[in-house]
UniProtKB/TrEMBL annotation:
The modification 4-aspartylphosphate is found at D72. Keywords: DNA-binding, Phosphoprotein, Transcription, Transcription regulation, Two-component regulatory system. This is Two-component system OmpR family response regulator. Residues 149-249 form the OmpR/PhoB-type domain. Gene3D superfamilies: 3.40.50.2300, 6.10.250.690, Winged helix-like DNA-binding domain superfamily/Winged helix DNA-binding domain. Residues 149-249 bind DNA. It comes from Endozoicomonas lisbonensis.
Length: 259
């Protein structure tokens, strides 16, 4: 059963957090904690019920730019991977996956499927809250890039910074997750500059990149796939050995969609 947890405080945050976990104690704890910190919370005890409720929530015209999904991986029926994969077919809502703290592969798979962040169990609810706030801050920062023009045009691609939609050179829509968009916008705003893995982690994940942190590489690899890059010889986002990554193509900002 899905539980609506309304918030009626003097200062109400318009942001919504979906908490999806089959463990009643964890789900109730997180819902209560997030509610006390000013969020609208919708809790679901299964992947199936969450997807149904999320679709209904979207259909009601809610603001999808102010929503985050906290999603447990290990659930009966549809697990977190299945849910994330299905969610990405119709929504770019940010996803924070809850994983076993020692299972690095779960984290990598989750990121490859479109998750924006991960948190290992057991965890302090304060850390989850900090990560939720960080994702909302990044979304706000990326939503209004300091550039002129609505559209970023590069190598035949066209990125709409208002709708956050990417169109291929053939005029086809290219699905982007929230993390994909944030990373692509970071490269676009720093076109021609080498971005270290540490600086990418600082901006996109609000944390320092460990020496062997593979998650930035996974995100870059996924973005390259979105751009149709050859994994062995990428042309747009190139690896600078020992330094990081660079967007090599020219970027033009325009006010109208190119003909």
């Amino acid at each position: 059963m899905l539980q609506y947890i309304g918030i009626w405080l003097l200062m109400v945050d318009s942001s919504t957090v979906f908490v999806v976990d089959d463990d009643d104690s964890i789900r109730d704890l997180l819902a209560s904690y997030l509610k006390k910190n000013g969020y609208n919370v919708i809790a679901a005890n299964s992947g199936e019920s969450f997807l149904q409720e999320f679709q209904e929530w979207r259909s009601a015209g809610e603001d999808e730019s102010r929503v985050i999904v906290v999603l447990d991986i290990m659930m009966p029926g549809m697990d977190g991977f299945d849910v994330c994969r299905e969610l990405r077919t119709f929504s770019k809502a940010p996803v924070i996956m809850l994983t076993a703290v020692s299972d690095e592969m779960d984290r990598i798979i989750g990121l490859e499927m479109g998750a924006d962040d991960y948190l290992g169990k057991p965890f302090n609810p304060r850390e989850l809250l900090a990560r939720i706030k960080a994702i909302f801050r990044r979304s706000e920062q990326v939503a209004e890039p300091k550039t002129t023009g609505r559209y970023a045009v590069f190598n035949g691609f066209c990125l709409d910074k208002v709708t956050r939609e990417l169109t291929s050179p053939e005029g086809e829509p290219v699905p982007l997750t929230g993390a994909d968009y944030n990373l692509l916008m970071l490269f676009i705003r720093n076109q021609g500059k080498v971005l270290s893995r540490e600086s990418i982690a600082e901006v996109t994940r609000k944390r320092n990149s460990a020496p062997m942190d593979r998650f930035i590489d996974v995100n870059v690899s996924r973005l390259r796939q979105c751009l149709g890059e050859n994994a062995r010889a990428p042309e747009l986002i190139k690896t600078v050995r020992g330094q990081g990554y660079i967007l090599t193509t020219e970027v033009e900002w325009v006010d109208k969609v190119p003909a």
